Amino acid sequence: MDEKLQIGRVIKSHGIKGEVIVDPTTDVPEERFAIGEVVEGHQTGKTLELTIVAARVHKGRLLVKFEEIADRSAAESLRGMRFLADPREEDDDEGFYDHELEGLRVYVDGEEIGNVRAVERGVAHNLLNIRLAAGGDALVPFVEAIVPEVNVEEGTVTLTPPEGLLDL
What we know:
Elements: E1 5-14, E2 19-24, H1 29-32, E3 38-43, E4 46-58, E5 61-66, H2 72-76, E6 82-85, H3 89-93, H4 98-101, E7 105-108, E8 111-120, E9 127-132, E10 137-141, E11 149-151, E12 156-159
Parallel strand pairs: 7-12
Antiparallel strand pairs: 1-2, 1-6, 2-5, 3-4, 3-6, 4-5, 7-8, 8-9, 9-10, 11-12
């Protein structure tokens, strides 16, 4: 069996009904955290299977409710839990691991403009945090329209940014 991928992590509990705030670390949180999905949670010395009964975005965060978690106390006990899943076939074709992107040289119109410093998680899509050679950092939406090419083997990312995206 393939090594499991981390698809998210519990940040903390939310409210009194047992919801948790999840930091999704997958390109498809709407699939991995869909109602009815069973996720495998790992936390110091224990593994739980949890069934998702609700998932929603609230103020830019992913809130998830599990069938097995009835209240805030139970939700709080999940703090720091990592969710792991088997890779899906499409995981091999799409997406990259954060560590594969970090450090890649970034090009616009054939000119090197900086390198990828980090990948920041967003609800709608991830952002590339780019350290610009001209100074400063820029957050670039990691979507095909703006990042049409990533070549891990060559160590490069090609951008086609809209006007003003990289201006400080």
